[in-house]
Amino acid sequence: MSFVTMHAGGASFPAPAYSAALANFSLLYHPINTFSYNTSDSLGGQQGVYSGALQWAGSDVEIAPSYLSASQALVALPAIGGGLVIPFNVPNLKRLRLSRKVLPRVFDGTIQYWNHPLLTDENPTLRSVNKPITIIKRGATSGGTILLGKALKLMDISTGFPNSPFLQPVFTIGPNNSITVKTSGEASTMVAYYPYSISYYNDVDSALYNQTIATLQHQNGDFVDWSQASILKAINSINQNEIDSLNVYSQSAMVLDSPIAGTYPLTVISNFVINPSKISNDYTTTIITLRFLWWFLMNPAFASQNRFTPLYNTSLGFKTMQFLSTVEYPGLGPLFGRSICDTKLNDAWNPRNPCVNGYCAEQLPFQESTAMCICDFGFENVFNSDCSEPTRLFRPDWPTYVQFALLLPGVSVIIITAIKLFLNRDQDEIKNIAPNCCYFILLGCLCGQLSILLQATSVSRSTCTMNIVFPSIAFGAIFGMLFLKSARIYVVFRYRRMARSQYLKDVFLILVAGSFALFDGILGAVLAIAVDISPVFTILSDNSSHQYVCYASFSTDFSIAVSVIFVALNCLLMAACLIMSYLSRNTIKRFNESKSINAAIYLSFLFMILGIAIVLGIPSNTTSTQILHRLTIVFVMWFICTGTPLILFQEPLHHVCQAPQASNITDKVSLKIGRSQSFLDKIGQVASLPPQSATGWEEFLPDEQEMIAAQLFYVGLKRGRLSLWSSATLMVIENMSSMFILTDSFHLYFQLRKSKIKIPPLAIEEPEGSMTTRFTPSRLEMTLGTDSFLFEFRTKEKMEKFMTLHNMAFVERDVDGGFKVGGL
């Protein structure tokens, strides 16, 4: 609830009860600054409401005609019952009986001495008290003064007193022997310290000084003392027809001088005064005001504890509730009954719980239309608002649909990538990136995608735990393997003697990364147990929603220690990946996979930093920020678990899928590359370039065209013993005794005579993961100066054909068209 200020004031007669209630209401709605009830008088309270200075006021009388304009008509709603008592201060006088004939004459100034014969008839002890009567009175606009005048008028009418001054529209209390004060509290003080005085106010103020109050005569001649029972009896004497016909705009409920025996003659009904067309310009203040008025009627203790009579469970009180339920706010219509949690008017005195499996957070009416029952764990509101629906497996909100929309392409990428890797596992490009390690990374990514699914499930202790365990396993698997692969590339590049170490094999890497992922998952489970993570009900600060959330308690040293270890371990892994990416930055030119691994690590790190900044920087205390946190976590996991396979495997798979298959290779092609001798002369200039030169030979193409025959061989290539496998095309030009090596990263031209082939093929270690070595009859090694190239042909026949072409380069034609051996 936002901070609001509710202003109240007016009649002093009911002030004690209202002040006590406001103090308690401020505690109930502790953010609300409710000022205490500021007493003045009834008409002053009406004027405050009419001007907008007060949201509501207390008034003992009906609305003044000047406050009944069509657009801003005020209403007086029955609020509390009480009695005007007649306290007096006559030393040693313990009881004073005032008859219906005497009471009006005391206050109109006719009886001016305490030993007046009319007084001594019922009070013989006053015969010796020859003292003037001093009347302590309130102003003419005071509700007590107005009500006293009405009661005295009724008494004069019933006794037949002629020319009663109280029959006049304007009358004066004690014109010759009175003192005027502002409030009933001041009147009580004056009576307490001013001997031989008399006044009129509520019983609460008289009780402050333990003052004696007079006994008044009923219509039937009995003398009746003030009591809550006599007040309640008078209130209940009002018949239902009178209540139904009560016009709250121009009338006030009257119980003065009731004919029912045993009723107190000066019984008073005090009212709430409001402007129903505009209680306040502020919506929240309007709601709070209406709730307070309703709450006061529903809590009789504030009236009874302050010696008033509550209107709880009375027809008059229900009359007030009926009117409050009709109050509207501009643009919103009636404010009552908009929510299932609003009390039904017919059940106002005995409200029932509308929730099947839950309760309402707010027990008072005038709730927002969005307010619904707070469900017990295991139930929720989807189509209904009464907690009658069992909790579904997945959350019934729009972020869940977003998560499913992300999950489908994410899992598809992982599955399709895994299938392609498996089908092309024998291709050099795929062997080069160690498919078994790739499968492990994909498994970690799949675990991460499942954690996205878990984020969409309804909250329970098991899902709260799994939301820690699954991301931990995914994180450990993905970044553990990325670190190990990056470290292997660095070691192979930096320390050649360790290239054949068994600790660089795929199996060892998978075991290490798997162990870390498993340990990270177990540590996450231990953390969930240590912090006792479980569903806890929470109401968001904007009151827009209430829900169960996963709550962790870090109340023990063990829970704090486990959480620190868990965070530190994963931070160290991420730091190790970043450090290894930096150290292996120089291997990018030789190892294509190194570039992909570094990109995956850096991008994942950036996404995680962004996600952490959002989650820790924006408090999740509203519905929108709760959704923001949830989607931030989901998107970070999705980008990592979907982006990592694309970054690592898209390029090699693309090359493999685009390369021609062996069955479709045409071994002999015709190329329009110009006159052979002219081309040979010019290409010789390129041949003099270092072997790593990759460009320039195209510039030597002549303008005249002729057909030159070339042989194409698609092979796996390893440049140097320590590099990784890649795909290459060997183009052998027969009649020029020359050859091109064409790869994605370089184009190399040289004359075959300058190269050597080592025969037979060497015992070659399997690339990236085999724990044994074997002789491969389809491999051979070619040296060109200081450079070494290892070729793996698709078939043994292809390799033998290449060797034949290579050998032919050493057979030179003589001048007669014969051949001579150039040497092998």
Entry keywords:
eight-stranded antiparallel β-sheet, alpha+beta, single chain, 41% helix, GPCR_3_C, PH-domain like, 3 domains, disordered C terminus, 22 helices, D-Maltodextrin-Binding Protein, domain 2, Rhopdopsin 7-helix transmembrane proteins, transmembrane, 824 residues
Q: Could you outline the blueprint of secondary structure elements for this entry?
A:
Blueprint: E1 5-6, E2 8-10, H1 15-28, E3 33-34, E4 38-39, H2 42-51, E5 56-59, E6 75-85, E7 87-89, E8 97-98, H3 102-107, H4 117-122, E9 134-137, H5 143-159, E10 178-180, H6 184-193, E11 197-199, E12 201-202, H7 203-208, E13 212-213, E14 215-217, E15 223-224, H8 228-236, H9 240-244, E16 267-274, H10 283-298, H11 301-304, E17 309-310, H12 315-324, E18 328-329, E19 333-334, E20 358-359, E21 374-375, E22 379-380, E23 389-390, H13 398-423, H14 428-432, H15 435-455, H16 461-494, H17 506-530, E24 534-539, E25 546-551, H18 557-583, H19 592-617, H20 623-658, E26 668-672, H21 676-687, E27 707-719, E28 726-733, E29 738-742, E30 747-751, E31 755-758, E32 763-765, E33 773-775, E34 779-784, E35 787-792, H22 796-808, E36 811-813, E37 819-821
Helix pairs in contact: 13-15, 13-20, 15-16, 15-20, 16-17, 16-18, 16-19, 17-18, 18-19, 19-20
Protein name: Periplasmic binding protein-like II
Membrane topology: Multi-pass membrane protein
GO molecular function, one term: G protein-coupled receptor activity
Structural description of this entry:
GO terms for molecular function: G protein-coupled receptor activity. It is found in: Membrane. It is a multi-pass membrane protein. Belongs to the PstS family. Pfam families: 7tm_3 (PF00003), PBP_like_2 (PF12849). By secondary structure, this protein is α+β, with helices and mostly antiparallel strands. It folds into three domains: 161 residues, D-Maltodextrin-Binding Protein, domain 2 (3-Layer(aba) Sandwich); 261 residues, Rhopdopsin 7-helix transmembrane proteins (Up-down Bundle); 160 residues, PH-domain like (Roll). Helices cover 41% and strands 18% of the residues. The protein is built from 22 helices and 37 strands. The strands form eleven sheets. Strands 26, 27, 28, 29, 30, 31, 34 and 35 form an eight-stranded antiparallel sheet that branches. A hairpin with a 5-residue loop joins strand 36 and strand 37. Helix 16 runs antiparallel to helix 17, helix 16 packs parallel to helix 18 and helix 18 runs antiparallel to helix 19. 40% of the residues are buried. The C terminus is likely disordered.
